[in-house]
Amino acid sequence: MIKRSIFLTLLTAALLSTPTMARQTGLAVVDVSKSTPQEVREYHQQTLTMLKSNRYKLRNDERQEIASASNKALSTLASVEQWAQVSPADVATISDANALVAQTIASADARGKRLICERRAETGTNLRRVHCETVVKRDQDARAAQEALQDMHRRGTSGVDPENIDPSQVVRGGN
User: Fold this and answer.
1) pTM score, two decimals?
2) Domain limits of the chain?
3) Most confident of 1-15, 119-133, 158-172
4) Integer Cα distance of 10 and 68 in angstroms
5) Of 2, 4, 76, 84, which is most buried, counting CB atoms within 10 Å of its CB?
6) 57 confidence band (pLDDT: 50, 70, 90)
7) Residue ranges of E strands in 52-163
8) Rounded to whole angstroms, how far apart are CA atoms 42 and 48?
9) Which is more confidently placed, 7 or 66?
10) What is the mean pLDDT of the chain?
């Protein structure tokens, strides 16, 4: 439990320093100089789990790059308990693998090619369907919704501009 809380603390700190990845992937760089070999192993295992889940869809070449880097780091750290057991060259390899994971995800975010997929209930039915959209589209939709909400608040709670109401279209209540 302590290892998990330390890892989550480190992950949260790393996420706060990389806001794009924090918001969209949950993956961030683990600093080898500030983490134990076990924490770095957990990070790369989590990275591989996220790749397998397909929630964050990357291009195949990006997926392979991340998987290869994480697998290389995991094999290097297979039976390591302390950094003293790792050669400086292997520490550099692990640091490079960490940076490659973060860089690949950041570049996918920058291009807006990565899809985020969720299961959503469709209106009028209890059936859930997979809905995918790019990170860029999702951000644009969120900004548009926020602007529409702010616009409604500026005009009043109804969201209707009283200047543009057609009196013949007004429905009167009661008999």
Assistant:
1) 0.50
2) 2-114, 116-156
3) 119-133
4) 23
5) 76
6) low
7) 56-57, 115-121, 128-134
8) 10
9) 66
10) 75
How many Cβ atoms are within 10 Å of 32's Cβ, its own excluded?
Answer: 21
Q: Which two tokens stand for residue 159?
A: 């969201």
Q: Cβ–Cβ contacts within 10 Å for residue 132, how many?
A: 12
Sign of torsion over alpha carbons 60, 63, 68, 71: negative
Average of per-residue pLDDT across 139-167: 78
Q: Note whether 66 and 104 are within 8 A (CB).
A: yes
Distance between CA atoms of 122 and 113, rounded to whole angstroms?
25
- List the structure tokens of 110: 């920058």
Q: In what side-by-side order are the strands of the sheet with 128-134? A: 56-57, 115-121, 128-134
Neighbours of 54 (CB within 10 A): 12
* Angstrom distances, CA of residue 172 to CA of 118, 162, 165, 169: 42, 16, 14, 9
